[in-house]
Request: fold
Amino acid sequence: MKKKRAKRRARYRATKPAEGFPKGMAATSQPSRAIVTAATGTATSSQAQKEQHKYLLPELRQIGIIAASLFLILIILSFILG
Reply:
């Protein structure tokens, strides 16, 4: 059974980014498509951003719907209970 310090070192080594990568970019065995296309120069930065943030708008819409419905429930409850 490993000691806590040895476990922590092993975990740090597994998550430590490799040399030559910019900060915040982890070294993986298979880089993402946006990184590969940006590195080869075939994709513009706007295309790479679209690829990275394609789920942002649907998630924001869903959060807005949930927030509006909770706000509506609070207003209805204030009329019923107040």
